[in-house]
Amino acid sequence: MKKNEPNWLVVLRTVMPLGLSYIPIGLACGVLLHAAGFNHLLTALISVMVFSGGAQFLIASMLTINAPMTTIILMMFFLELRYALLGSSLSRYLKGQSLPFILTFAFSMNDENYAVNYLKFATDKHWKPSQALMVEHYSLLFWTVSNIIGSLIGSALTINLQVVDFALTALFIYMAIMQAKSRLIILVAVLSGVLTIGFLVLMKSTLGLVVSTLLASLTGYFIERYLLAHKPESHLLYKVHDPTGQQPWKNLTSRAQRGFSYAISQLNE
């Protein structure tokens, strides 16, 4: 940091890599939200109010299959519940702050700016809560502007909803693969898929997605808890890797990325 550098510029330098990384995925999110029926104003509002790539892609996906609002809200609730844990880990750095500050900070937090702020608080003793809040606002600005531009691009293209479905499927497959870090997680993912099919058939409603997700998550939690307490050497707890030492599922991840990129490039056809 340069001496006497303005505070806003210090924070901007810190958050710039994150902001730039938001641009491509934000553009794609804006395009898909427009295809799902959101106009430019609604896209801007949902970007500010939700501020979560995973949740916004989920909303677009659920709307394309005409899921009821109750199901969408419940899915978002369980998807975003992790922020209760993330926020609690930052609470020690925000002691003495006013309630309005805490509420504003919580409203603007997401996975990425949480990581930036947690790292800064842990490594920089001069990092202030006000600077952490600026990180959140800068990242929110990058995300919202990218979504709006994506919506404008989407309005200029003829969107094929079949391509949108493919793009969303590729995205969620990629997200699932990135979480496959142990055999137990893979087992829970397979169980979740089987339960989802079963409950969708039985309930004839997308509410089956919520029920299957909860049951699979609880099952995975109790299995992991039991294994850690009684069988810590279980193969289910082993991390997934390959003999070459490369990242797990590297080839599948690359294919999912290419599939999503191809779908976005074909939206104007």
Q: Top keywords for this entry?
A:
single chain; about 270 residues; mainly alpha; globular; transmembrane
Radius of gyration: 20 Å
| Alpha-beta content class | mainly alpha
Instruction: Give the overall silhouette.
Output: globular
Element-by-element helix/strand order? HHHHHHHHHHHH
- Gap between N and C termini, in Å? 48 Å
Strand content: under 5%
Main β sheet profile: none
What's the assembly state of these chains? single chain
- Can you tell me the residue ranges where pLDDT is under 50 for at least 5 consecutive residues? 242-250
Q: Please count the beta strands (DSSP E, at least 2 residues each).
A: 0
Number of DSSP helices?
A: 12
Helix share, percent: over 70%
Mean pLDDT: 83
Protein name: Inner membrane protein YgaZ
Family: Belongs to the AzlC family.
InterPro entries: Brnchd-chn_aa_trnsp_permease
Transmembrane segments: 15-34, 65-85, 135-153, 184-203, 209-228
What do these coordinates show?
It is a single chain. The chain has 269 residues and is mainly alpha-helical. It has a domain at 1-157. Helices cover 74% and strands 0% of the residues. It contains 12 helices and no strands. The chain has helices at 7-35, 40-49, 53-64, 69-80, 83-90, 99-108, 111-123, 129-155, 161-178, 183-203, 207-230, 250-265. Helix 5 packs parallel to helix 7 (111-123). The longest helix is centred in the first third of the chain and has 29 residues, at 7-35. It is globular, with a radius of gyration of 20 Å. The termini are far apart. Belongs to the AzlC family. Keywords: Cell membrane, Membrane, Transmembrane, Transmembrane helix, Transport. The chain crosses the membrane at residues 15-34, 65-85, 135-153, 184-203, 209-228. Its main location: membrane.
